[in-house]
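This part of the workshop introduces the protein records we will be handling. Each record describes a single protein and holds just a pair of labelled lines. Instead of coordinates, the fold is spelled out as a row of discrete tokens. To make this concrete, we reproduce a full record directly below:
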Amino acid sequence: MTTFQDELLPATRRALLHRIAVAQAEGRAPSLVAAVVRGGRTVWHGARTSVDGHGPDENVQYRIGSITKTFTAVLVLRLRDEGLLDLGDPLEKYLPGTGAGDATIFQLLAHTAGLAAESPAPWWERTPGSLRPELSDVLGEQPFLHPAGHRHHYSNPGYTLLGALVEELRGAPWEQVLRQEVLEPLGLDRTSAQPQAPHAGGWAVHPWADVMLPEPLEDLGRMAPAGQLWSTTGDLARFAVFLTAGDDRVLSAASVREMRVPAAPAEPADVLDGATYGLGLQIQRRDGRLLVGHSGSLPGFLAGLTISVDEDVAAVVLANCTSGPLTYTVGADLVRIVAEAEPRIPEPWRPLTRVDPAVLELAGQWYWGTHPFVFRVTADGLVSLGPLSGAGRRARFRPNGDGTWTGLEGYYAGELLRPVRRPDGVMSHLDLGSFVFTRQPYDETSPVPGGVAPEGWQGIG
């Protein structure tokens, strides 16, 4: 993969190198490799290693652990988009007899199904997958620990079930489906279920001595959809571009955006940390920016994929040690360094090529009760409605083709915005989910809920 080192300023490149150097040294990682993506391509690559000579480049494989879950989620969303399932369907509809079939596909994707975090002993990450040949071996006798849908409880077995769902509906092994439907279309030739040279070896570093121990590299078997994959910074950089913009050969931009929407009730500690979970993606607020991606770990390896969609910057960090550098945190720092040192330059403003006069008529100030709002028509073909100033409910709306719009976010997500005219054709008000917006505060000529006092506005005297 070609990198474009000269696209970042020298001071930025040095700051990035310094950050991964500190992470590798303080985290005592045998090696650490990282990449930064901006504007849809890799603009920086760096590596630090304890071995003299050539360091790992963007083509060296590392095990990526739970970043695998994001790939599995993409496969499930593809099935949904093809109409082969609904995310609200119970698993039992497609995989009967698992003992966990009451959980919905949506809940499994968001880790809200109430399933246990791990499979029954012995620990699946450090033992052969052949010990768990069936789904019943993965789930155990009591798969549920919590009521479904009530809390976010991270579950590796839940993603094993999703992998089995993919196999059932595609009639092929999970790995084969992943390669044909995601890896090959996106050009991720160095991502695989089994290691392919060149690849890093996995190590455990002694906590109190500068010595290492090789970790076993087990095939996870049934648990593969939860954490099997090996990949490179080059491939994960391309994957980050896909998770930002989508690719119609795999998933549309709208479906990828759906993956990035919070889907799980946050635990109290998560609220304090600004962290939640979407559909196969972790979501976190850090340094004032919203980050999406996923962390990953397996014995001998740590991985992090971190994306700031708003700033169009992403980072990949991989290391070959069981514990050490916090790869997701390092990735967040790499994103911050680039975003702050070289802020994204916005595209030039351009006017609309055409505008419907009926839509333009709605532009300007409206009132919900006494609160002033502004209706704007934007060049992306959407409209927005939000407070004239300060905080409050605001949203963008997409056109429905019949003179109405549907909310895309926040309080008004999915709500219908409908302009209402009087019998003579004059605009009366906007109806938004039963809220009435008028051109004047409490306009007595509009159907304000509860009516308007007939004596009108008054002073004190």
